[in-house]
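Hello, quick one for you while I still have it in my head. A protein chain has come my way and I'm curious about its shape. I'm sending you its amino acid sequence along with the backbone structure tokens. I'd be grateful if you could look everything over and explain what you see. Here's the protein in full, and shout if anything looks odd to you:
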Amino acid sequence: MKNKKLRLGLPRALFYYYYAPWWETFWQALGVEVVVSPPTNKEIMDLGVSLAVAEACLPVKIYYGHTAWLAGQVDVLFVPRLVSVEKKSFICPKLMGLPDMLRAAVKPCPPIIDTVINCVRQPQEGLAAAVEDMAGRVGFRGREVQSAREAAQERYLCWLERQQMGRANGATDLTSASAAGAAVSETGKPGLIDSAPAQAGSLKVGLVGHAYLIHDRFLSMDIPAKVKKMGGEITLPENLPPDQIALACRQLPKRLFWTLGQKIMGSVLSLIEQDSIAGIIHLTAFGCGPDSLVGDLAERYARRRGTPFLLLTIDEHTGEAGVNTRLEAFMDMLPRRYSA
């Protein structure tokens, strides 16, 4: 039965950092109360590490923690089974199996809306089927679903445009989807990293990696802010035109299978062709299979171009002091290398 007072949990991890505006707006337009877990902290990380299998990468462990935090506070969890979000490309297998892994590990676990999102063959048809399925599971049908989808799509496209312009700098972009156009969220919760210019004369540095690493201030140890304090100006994959990233990927002798891997690799290939980019930092999670290939490939292309490249790999044991030391050494080297 349709219940417009339904409390739906949305873990603030993984693909939340890619589709939060769409998901939040869609459910809110249907009258569902959306409960988003708080920004990642040590308590959530420790909880996730205790529940997940050791082989999982840190972002997946973090997702466990966010899910466990929500478990006793919501009626249902929204954890879509992401197979593919674009034609002929796939998502990490761990994300495909996430709903099943959560049911086995989080006790008690609320019902999970695990709609399959598979756009590998027909993107439009795949998305339409997914929308109908996820809404239908809680009793919504017909015109109200279509209206909610249109509102979500409009909000999402606006958000993407703001990202590309480098102005996605507040919680509005992720945690307050219903307040589109506002400059700052009333909650003050962190949203996307501000990629606006730092100061005149600063060195431009490309920061690439998964959005759920870069934009999670706890996981990334706020590397973007550190780079700015050291005199750098950050350029993110989100600031680059999608067409430019796709075109850059054509340089590869073989197409990558993973959507996120293509975005990272295309961003690197695009950035190293820009003379204004002094260096590139690649943030990755230990144990990520696709990243082990993409990271090595990206570093090889950067070296061929003569662009300084720093690979930072993190897990739950990574110490901030060590990251700071490597970051400082890299940033100290760039002015000499860039001016040579």
About this structure: The first strand starts at residue 7 and ends at 10. The chain has 14 helices and ten strands.
